[in-house]
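Supplementary Methods, section 5.1.

A reviewer requested that the exact input to the structure prediction be made available. We therefore reproduce it here, unchanged from the version used in the analyses.
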Amino acid sequence: QVQLVESGGGLVQAGDSLRLSCAASGRTASLLHMGWFRLAPRKDREFVAAIHRNGGSTDYADSVKGRFTISKDNAKNTVYLQMDNLKPEDTAVYFCAGNTLPGVSSSFRDYPYWGQGTQVTVSS
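The structure derived from this sequence is encoded cell-by-cell as follows.
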C-alpha cells in the first residue's frame, strides 16, 4: 500500500512562485517514477512533469518547460514541484502520482497511486 499527500497550493498573482510537495508513505520501495498531473476547469487531465526516483532523469510538458522544476528528496520520501513565473492558465488542481513501471511515462493510466490533489489558482 502506498499513500501520497500533496501540499503547498494556494492563491497567487501572475508572475509569482509556489512550491508543491508530495509526501509518500507505505511501501514506497515499489515506486520507480513520480509524476505531477493537473486538472483545470473544463479540461482533461494533463501531464506536467515526471522524475526517476533513483536516477534523477526528468521529463516536462512543453507548456511548463523553463518555468517548472521537479525534484526529489529520497531521505524524506518527498517529491517537489517548483513553479516559477506562474500564469493564469496554470490554474488547476495538481495531483502527485506514483509509477511502478521501469520507464518514465506521461500517461495517467501508467500511474496506480494518486494523491488527493492541491488547488493552485493564479490571478491575472
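The mean pLDDT is 94. These observations are discussed further in the main text.
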